[in-house]
Amino acid sequence: MKAFKILSLSATCLIAALAAALIPINIFCANFPAWVTILLSAVFCGKLISYLICYKTKLITKIILPLAFGTIALFCSLFPYAVPYWNSYSFKNYSGTVLGYDEIISYETAKKDLSTLKNYLKHTHPKFRDGLTVEVENAFNLSFDRLRGADEITVNGLRREIQSILQIIGDAHTTTYNDYPNDRYLKTIPQKYSQGYDITAINGKTVKTIIDDIKPYYCYEAESWISIDLGSLATLDFLQMQEPFTYEWTNGDSIIEEAYTEDDFVDWTEFLNIRDKYTENEASASNEFVYYVIDEHRSLAVLTLSQCEYNQEYVDCLNQMFTEVKQKNIKTVAVDLRGNGGGNSQVGNEFLKYLPIESYTDGPFDWRWGFLNFHNDGKKSNIKYDNLTFEGNVFALTDSYSFSAAKDFAMLLQDNGLGKVIGEPSANSVNGYGEIASFYLPNTGLYVQISTKKWYRIDGGNSDEFVMPDYPCESANCFTTLYDIID
């Protein structure tokens, strides 16, 4: 009897452990429905009840076991409905099927993926804690109706419908991306760009008209953020353009027209090989995401950050720069964030460790975990590098492509009174969304990212929608303006 008693309790413990283990398995390894953990929780709770009924136990055991197993069951049942990364690919690789942009799918396939997206939005996005808005709900219904009545549905057609819904949210982080395995790229583009040519029109439509046409399907907060890969065959299909594709090119002095067919488009690997032939002589510094230059004549250090990557390379680069700044008694430091599409906002926090402040305010946020909401007021203590403290002038250079974490960096300096901003307004709102969870729709493999946090401006008294420069100028004139200020 004692052996059966031990075996019964051990089996119950193993099932409870399995239920708990399924949570990290889902986040880091494999997807499965949330009800699986609920089912296992019900099983081990049922086995515990049977154990307590069938076997004599001490009073303390009758109290401790139900409390312990009840807590585990509650956690395993609720966690999948709270964590925004359930069934996401934020921390694991996707190995499923990804259909081509022009593959034809059934209405049932499109319906299932659109319904999955709807559930992801309800579960994840901070705007929908109380359910989808009427506008978004209606947009889903219209998309279902259009797909149901379509003679033919392609994967790109489904993506158009998805984008028409996500665009309504007004969140540049919540979107789908062209991630098709069969996409191809116009092979003549690298040569044309190297000759100073830009695309001005395709099939008689100017680039401006194309951008205007794409707005109902593009997720943006500032129009300057809208960017289209006009050399991608999948993009041209998304734009509903047909071959032959007549491109108009200009180098400022002359205009030429060339017509292309699908045979003029190559896969990504071949395209990169072609591009490398025309970029192999470029300076190596341009391929680094972070580097700095010291101008002793102007007593100026410029940190160029093309991506917000927070890693050892960035940390070391900062340390080397501020070490040299101290050695050479440099008076001004500028951070060039132009063209920076964001990444990890910790790059800004690391920079502030070199400034003479004890504390500061980072971007406040609400982080949605399903039915839960975690608020952070952004108050932080500054862990300074006292031996390298910089007490000179600080500037951030921004343009209309300074997005997300790059925008946060500029706001961190401006709103804490630590530095001035030179250039153009940021590419997304200071009161927007971010901290994405990544998903692949199960039937088509369409990639979707959805925000989990609602961010707020550090300076709540500033009503500007974007980070507005203290010294406005065009992106190309940022250094001229900076030199005028410090000279």
Please write out the topology.
Blueprint: H1 2-28, H2 35-54, H3 59-82, E1 104-105, H4 107-124, H5 134-149, E2 153-154, H6 155-169, E3 175-177, E4 185-186, H7 189-194, E5 198-202, E6 205-206, H8 207-214, H9 233-238, E7 245-250, E8 255-260, E9 265-266, H10 268-279, E10 290-295, E11 300-305, H11 312-327, E12 332-336, H12 346-352, E13 359-361, E14 365-369, E15 372-376, E16 379-381, E17 393-398, H13 405-415, E18 420-423, E19 433-440, E20 447-455, E21 471-472, H14 478-486
Parallel strand pairs: 11-12, 12-17, 17-18, 18-21
Antiparallel strand pairs: 1-2, 3-20, 4-9, 5-6, 5-7, 7-8, 10-11, 13-16, 14-15, 14-20, 19-20
Helix pairs in contact: 1-2, 1-3, 2-3, 4-5, 5-6, 12-13
Question: What does the model show?
Answer:
The protein has 487 residues and is an alpha+beta fold. It is built from 14 helices and 21 strands. The chain has helices at residues 2-28, 35-54, 59-82, 107-124, 134-149, 155-169, 189-194, 207-214, 233-238, 268-279, 312-327, 346-352, 405-415, 478-486, and strands at 104-105, 153-154, 175-177, 185-186, 198-202, 205-206, 245-250, 255-260, 265-266, 290-295, 300-305, 332-336, 359-361, 365-369, 372-376, 379-381, 393-398, 420-423, 433-440, 447-455, 471-472. A 6-stranded mixed sheet has the order 10-11-12-17-18-21, with helices on both faces. Strands 3, 14, 15, 19 and 20 form a 5-stranded antiparallel sheet that branches. A hairpin with a 2-residue loop joins strand 14 (365-369) and strand 15. Helix 5 (134-149) packs antiparallel against helix 6 (155-169) and helix 12 packs parallel to helix 13. The longest helix has 27 residues, at 2-28. It is globular, with a radius of gyration of 27 Å. The mean pLDDT is 93.
